[in-house]
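Methods: example folding runs. The two proteins below were folded one after another, and each record is reproduced exactly as written to the output file, sequence line first and structure-token line second.
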Amino acid sequence: MSNTPMAANPLTRAVLEIDEYASGLGWDQPARLFALVDTARLRVQEPGLAAQLGLGDEEESSGLTPIEQDELPTGKQLDEFLGTIAWPDAVAGCALTVERLMLPPSAEAQVPQGLSDAKLTKWVAEHPDRQEVRMTVAVLRDGTRESALRLREKDTPTEVLTGPDLVPGLAEALKATFED
């Protein structure tokens, strides 16, 4: 049984399930991409896969089931990779979990001007107020979105922040994977 807290919204439940899964793998992990499929539809159309995923008939049927995709290619920028994705009609949405360094808003005024991407990355990595964060962002075909943020220093399920607009840029990039 999952330790994921019950959420009213199936998309929020899926995001929290993915966050819990990623948490179990530990930190310093590569980005992970998930297809989100309608659980009831999966049981009907792919009963063997549903059984393999442990989706018994007794479980709730109105949810979304995350299915992890192949590992993301190394050496390719995330936005470039996302631009190459096309989902089949059976996929209701998608989600991505990724770790990043984050600075508090108060540090924005301290950022030196004119840094290259590599130098900016190094500057952030060396900043004393940096925070390591795992972001899980999901979108549905209709544009509905949800996110979960987990700070490394507060790595417990009760400290996970959720909301639809926590990582808007990444949500927009994921939504674009459904556009023709």
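Second run, written to the same file directly after the first:
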Amino acid sequence: MIFGRSERGKPPVEPVTLKILVAGGFGVGKTTLVGAVSEIKPLRTEEVLTEAGRPIDDTSGVEGKHTTTVAMDFGRITLREDLVLYLFGTPGQDRFWFLWDELATGSLGAVVLADTRRLEDCFAAVDYFERRSIPFVVGVNCFEGAARYPADDVRQALDIDPAVPVVICDARDRESVKEVLIGVVQHAMAHAADRRQTVTT
């Protein structure tokens, strides 16, 4: 089925749409992740890094990066005919953090992308979602030449709750990203069920 059309004899299915944030540090692969999985041409708000921004933007570890997201990335993926995810990639630099609250409104959950070479860059995103009780999954983006660590080691380094999934992924690979997004949906549903149970007991 493609939005509004269905197979002959079957009633049209109205898909459930869910909003997922993709967050993390500067240059961690958020724009790449959204682009790898989106079934539409992603909306990107990238600008070229300039000399004027050099004192503000920390490019250590990502010296080859020449552009930055200044508002958001946007993409869409249909997981099933009745389930569509809208992806919003957040800007990674501190000076654009005022946009986060707006982007987070109405979100089901989030992916926090992490780079093991600069793990501290995702601390702020982890803290943001923890403080707002927004369920999230940590996706460890595997960069070429970076050391590989077991998920449990990353969890310990980030000091996150044992219930938060940590998955190894490749932000360039559609199937890998799809698995991360399915993990977000499953984790968010489990999180919602736990909260409902807490309220009723």
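Comment on the second run: The first helix runs from residue 30 to 37.
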